[in-house]
Here is the input.
Amino acid sequence: MSSADARAKRKRRSAKSRRGRERTAFITAPPATDTSVIRRLLEQQGVNTLAADELDLPGAPLSMVVMEAMGRADIVIGVLGEREESGNVLFELGVAQGLKKPTLLIAAKENATALGAATGIPYLRAEPDNFAALEFGLTQFLSAPHHGNAGPKLAQKETRPLGEYADALLARLHAHQEQGDQHPEDLLRDIIVEALEASGISTLSVGEKQGEARIDIAVWSNDLDPWIRNPLLMEVKKYLPGKGELDTLVKRFADALGPGSLNWALVIYGAAAPKAERLKHLHPHILLLSAEKFLESLRDTGFGDLVRKLRNERVHGRG
Here is the structure.
């Protein structure tokens, strides 16, 4: 037996699962993509190949066909083309992730890198007919141990509840309100900043210029991702602003982040004006919360969890 034949035999043997049977790869690609090189390389290594349109399931909906194909597959190979061509690929990759199938992305352009980084799916930057690059990448992928795609590891939460410290801040808040201090917004802002820092926020700016506008507080935290874009802009007011002032605040927030960049912002107020509840939904991305409720909530909830809860209540109509 030649050395080349021996290497090929070892490759075929390594492609088998631990149960001793040959594996099957489900290949998903845009309709016009030639996957013959990928198929040939996989089959040389003892891996059977399968595409959704090769199943004999006449009259079945696409979702049923994809689920049947995924059920037969041990691994999934996704080939990405241009964005408008890859809709079926992205759908089928989502199914693969849900079923925890070991998956490899193949694409010549940066979309594989971006999607791989976002999902944790391994990716290979290569044209689907680049034999040398595909041979190396597929060999590495097939020889690696696979236990499904666990995805990226979740980071430890950055922010934490204040516990009893929230009560001390609430006592200070009530004392300032009762004394009628001349600069209540400055004092209120100091308490809010102290609460943020105690909750674990390590990156924030106070009273500094962001873009074209000066903002009371800007907060950066990994706990806000992925649904709330950093930084979260905050404004502290003695009273809940009326509609005109709220409109002005929205413009200032937009100026701070640039056109089209406003995601979410939080306005904290010391006391509510009459009929304040009607202002709650005037601006869909502005969250309103009294200082007292803010501090009370932080007693048992970290800042990141609190803001995401407020956002979800607004989005899902429960606020």
